[in-house]
Amino acid sequence: MHQTFDAALGVNLLHANQDLADHNREHFDKWELTCLNIMSSPGAGKTVLLEKTLAALQEKLTMAVIEGDMTTELDADRLRQYGVPVIPINTGRSCHLDAKMVSGGLHRLEHDYEPSSFDLLLVENVGNLVCPAEFEVGEHAKVALLSVTEGEDKPLKYPVMFQEADCLLVTKVDLVPHLNVKVQNIIDNVRQMNTQATIIPVSAQTGEGLDAWYDWVLKACAQKDVVKATA
Known about the structure:
It contains 8 helices and 7 strands, in the order H-E-H-E-H-E-H-E-E-H-H-E-H-E-H. The chain has about 230 residues and is of the alpha/beta class. The protein has a 7-stranded parallel beta sheet with strand order 3-2-4-1-5-6-7, with helices on both faces. Strand 2 (about 65-70), helix 3 and strand 3 (about 85-90) form a beta-alpha-beta unit. Helix 1 packs parallel to helix 4. The longest helix has 30 residues, at about 1-30.
């Protein structure tokens, strides 16, 4: 009986979240604003990826960021240095951003700016390989990061994140020579559950793969609905 109640409660929570996510998506579409939901475990490189992206694309796109973290504005402060609006959201004990939190961030963005003046909204989700993938926020595409330091088996152990990803960045590939890991094995494990996602090995240190990532972002902004391609 208790298990049935918990399951029903979970379904109801996801349903309510989806309704608000759809409402957020209506706003994004009305504003012609592309939204990308950036997800990974802690330390996979989300914030440094956003730093690189803001620096590289600032002459091509007008961007804003919703920065999710359980506590502090440390990452938000890093991104503010690039001169873009950054809306911080502290989730407390919650391990993910949900549609209501992002809706609140959008209202704060609307208060100070004209949302339709932006091309791209980057949502940096809370570091977690499980919860963020299950809660839509209205995004046009989900971007997952997996660092080579996390091992080859993570896509198999935490499948939902990788099933849902439209784009997967395999990060920190410059460290591969120092690890017992092969990027191709990671890709093969992802392909067991997701044959459509674009997969891009990258290194923020050497710049490997970043141009391919920037091209993917520009394509997403041009088309709104991301064209999925195999690696």
